[in-house]
């Protein structure tokens, strides 16, 4: 069988189309599934790209068939009940049985040829393909292409009059293929040796270099965004949710532990999910009879957990408290919100110590009545050993402890020991439940020994590594282009007399599904001593929502959860613990350039992306590093 993208073409198991589509395309899709192994068929490929003159180009083709050792064929499908050619023009029988001329529209065959030429031109303009797609003299593309029109429910006799249609004869002559071979008419004709009909298209015409297997794979990787941005993330997220539900079988291990349980797993393995589910259960069973505390490292993660609908009632009743650990310590110590600089200095003393023992100060001020029956410590790998004294002081008699950690995401405890208590129960999660298989495999190559045991094997976009862009403003323009590309879908069409369920209602990504990440901060707080790194391009990205003196990272998280139509830009470390359907990671350099560009930072950044990951390096070294991981 041929490899089909998307799988099942968007139709349900019984052939019922989900959203846009007509019966004609479904019939063609089913027949193309029977093509040989190694062939690749892409259905409903909508293209949106920027050419060498920085012009936005978009076009759409019904099917692309990539044939190893040959080239590619573009197929245009017309689900006409009847069609004819009169006076050099195509006619089709529309609603009510009336014959309707195509008028100003081009013929089906010419539509296919235009799509083929535009695809050919686009690939020629991509540097990634330039070395093998054009010859040494940079003449015409070396990959052979053809157009193929499929007209259903009509007879072959209508093909010969098509010689009089403007453009049809010229299109056939361009590649030396007889016109009658470029049309497949009727379902019976479609079923009769489709493979042979396609292969015969390559028998004549110009002698271009044939596509090799690895070139087919490269083209598919490049085209992936065009047919996976059309609502497939919805199906993908549903599959992930179904896979995550299997973690319910692990939850009894949390409930069965007496003293404590240590849960470790890769990024996206469901650690926070398990913590939330167990907290929800405890609060539902015991009400205010037990006090539950959730602690994590990142303020943004705490804000997201705090706002989960399933935990709202428990928090309102006082049965559950959710904190980022530094914020809890500030509250206990009575440290009033001060300037950015003062907060930073206080936090540094809490983390690494100093002349003033901040941990001891927090312990001295901790009320004796502030004890908890169940404590969940998320992101435990980022807790210094000294913080364990405070955590232990928060434990009530016979308190149950739940620790969740992944040492590969340890970004903060670098000069000392991590808080790692001894627990009788250890649970290891070895399945990635967040990232597409391509992103999971890519991320696993970043850190030694970080291999993923299991992933969700569902076709999805690959990792897109862009060419290095040294200039920050130019890099920002590239970020904006990718935001537009991800969000640029067909306008929602509404037709009179068409039932709601048959309307074309798909759109591309929503703004809140996209996050732009940088290793560097885009905000300089007054008097903080901090500064925006020269390599940070976020402030130059038009329309990006960023942290500033008025907007905190927590506020950005709230805007995402409220599904406001803004794209959020944050630092990699501020977004740790969170996730987004699409992540655009910019300002990337090779690890080791500075403390913000470590391999662990890169691992954390890549694993935030659930469905699509775009990497825009700022240096050739960064590009080389990112591309090297792609090849493994």
Description of the molecule:
By secondary structure, the protein is α/β, with parallel strands linked by helices. Helix content is 33%, strand content 20%. The chain is built from 21 helices and 21 strands. The protein has a six-stranded mixed sheet. Helix 11 (299-306) runs parallel beside helix 19 and helix 13 packs across helix 15. The longest helix is centred in the first third of the chain and has 18 residues, at 108-125. It is elongated, with a radius of gyration of 29 Å. The two termini are 27 Å apart. Residues 9-21 and 490-507 have low confidence and may be disordered.
- Computed over alpha carbons, the radius of gyration is 29 Å
- Spatial strand arrangement across the major sheet: 1-2-3-4-8-9
Largest sheet: 6 strands, mixed
Shape: elongated
Alpha-beta classification: alpha/beta
> What is the distance, rounded to the nearest whole angstrom, between the alpha carbons of the first and last residues?
27 Å
Number of helices: 21
Mean pLDDT, nearest integer? 81
DSSP, total strands: 21
What proportion of the residues is helical, as a percent range?
A: 25-40%
- Content of β-strand: 15-25%
Which terms summarize this structure?
632 residues, six-stranded parallel beta sheet, 21 helices, 21 strands
Please sum up the structure shown.
The protein has 21 helices and 21 strands. With 632 residues, the protein is an alpha/beta fold.
Topology:
Layout: E1 3-5, H1 23-32, E2 40-50, E3 56-67, E4 71-78, E5 83-86, E6 89-93, E7 99-101, H2 108-125, H3 127-133, E8 144-151, H4 168-174, E9 183-185, H5 187-191, H6 194-200, H7 213-228, H8 232-244, H9 251-256, E10 260-265, H10 271-286, E11 292-296, H11 299-306, H12 312-317, E12 320-324, H13 325-333, H14 340-352, H15 358-365, E13 372-377, H16 387-393, E14 395-405, E15 425-429, H17 437-444, E16 463-465, H18 472-487, E17 514-518, E18 544-545, H19 553-561, E19 567-571, E20 580-588, H20 599-606, E21 609-617, H21 620-631
Parallel strand pairs: 1-2, 4-8, 8-9, 10-14, 10-15, 11-12, 11-13, 13-14, 16-21, 17-19, 17-20, 18-19, 20-21
Antiparallel strand pairs: 2-3, 3-4, 5-6, 6-7
Helix pairs in contact: 11-19, 13-15
């Amino acid at each position: 069988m041929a490899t089909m993208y998307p799988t099942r073409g968007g139709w349900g198991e019984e052939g019922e189309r989900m959203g846009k589509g007509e019966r004609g395309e479904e019939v063609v899709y089913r027949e193309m599934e029977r093509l040989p192994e190694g062939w690749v068929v892409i259905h409903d490929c909508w293209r949106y790209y920027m050419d060498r003159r920085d012009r936005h180009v978009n076009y759409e083709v019904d099917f692309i068939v990539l044939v190893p050792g040959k080239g590619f064929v573009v197929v245009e499908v017309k689900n006409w009940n009847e069609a004819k050619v009169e006076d050099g023009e195509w006619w089709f029988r529309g609603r009510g049985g009336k014959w309707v001329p195509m008028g100003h529209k081009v013929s089906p065959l010419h539509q296919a040829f235009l799509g083929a030429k535009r695809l050919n031109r686009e690939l020629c303009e991509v540097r990634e393909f330039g070395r093998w797609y054009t010859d040494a003299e940079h003449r015409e593309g070396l990959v052979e292409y053809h157009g193929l029109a499929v007209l259903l429910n009509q007879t072959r006799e209508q093909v010969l009059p098509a010689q009089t249609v403007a453009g049809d004869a010229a299109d056939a002559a361009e590649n030396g293929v007889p016109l009658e071979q470029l049309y497949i008419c009727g379902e019976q004709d479609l079923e009769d040796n489709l493979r042979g009909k396609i292969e015969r298209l390559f028998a004549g015409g110009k002698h271009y270099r044939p596509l090799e297997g690895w070139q087919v794979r490269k083209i598919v990787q490049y085209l992936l965004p065009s047919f996976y941005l059309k609502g497939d993330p919805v199906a993908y997220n549903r599959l992930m949710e179904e896979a995550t539900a299997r973690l319910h079988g692990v939850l009894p291990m949390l409930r069965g532990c007496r003293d404590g349980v240590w849960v470790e797993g890769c990024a996206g393995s469901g650690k926070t999910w398990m913590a939330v589910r167990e907290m929800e259960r405890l609060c539902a069973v015991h009400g205010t009879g037990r006090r539950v505390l959730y602690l994590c490292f990142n303020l943004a993660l705490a804000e997201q957990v705090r706002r989960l609908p399933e935990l709202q009632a428990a928090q309102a009743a006082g049965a559950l408290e959710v904190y980022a650990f530094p914020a809890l310590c500030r509250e206990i110590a009575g440290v009033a919100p001060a300037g950015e600089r003062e907060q930073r200095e206080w936090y540094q003393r809490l983390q690494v110590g100093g002349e003033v023992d901040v941990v001891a100060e927090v312990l001295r001020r901790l009320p004796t009545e502030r004890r908890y029956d169940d404590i969940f410590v998320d992101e435990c790998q980022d807790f210094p050993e000294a913080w364990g004294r405070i955590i232990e002081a928060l434990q009530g008699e016979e308190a149950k402890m739940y620790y969740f950690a992944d040492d590969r995401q340890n970004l903060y405890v670098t000069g000392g020991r991590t808080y790692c208590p001894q627990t009788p129960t250890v649970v290891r999660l070895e399945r990635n439940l967040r990232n597409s298989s391509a992103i999971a495999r890519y991320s696993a190559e970043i850190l030694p020994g970080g291999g993923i045991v299991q992933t969700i094997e569902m076709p999805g976009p690959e990792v897109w590594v862009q060419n290095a862009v040294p200039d920050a403003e130019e890099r920002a323009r590239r970020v904006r282009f990718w935001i537009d590309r991800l969000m640029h879908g067909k306008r929602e069409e509404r037709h009179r007399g068409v039932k709601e369920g048959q309307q074309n209602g798909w759109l591309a990504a929503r703004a809140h599904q996209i996050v732009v990440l940088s290793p560097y901060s885009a905000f300089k707080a007054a008097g903080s001593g901090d500064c925006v790194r020269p390599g940070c391009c976020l402030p130059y990205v038009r329309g990006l929502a960023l942290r500033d003196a008025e907007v905190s990272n927590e506020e950005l998280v709230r805007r995402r959860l409220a599904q406001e139509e803004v794209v959020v830009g944050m630092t990699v470390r501020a977004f740790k613990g969170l996730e987004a359907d699409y992540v655009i990671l910019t300002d990337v350099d090779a690890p080791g350039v500075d403390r913000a560009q470590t391999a662990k930072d890169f691992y954390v950044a890549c694993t935030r992306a659930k469905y699509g990951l775009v990497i825009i390096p700022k240096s050739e070294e960064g590009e080389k590093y990112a591309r090297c991981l792609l090849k493994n």
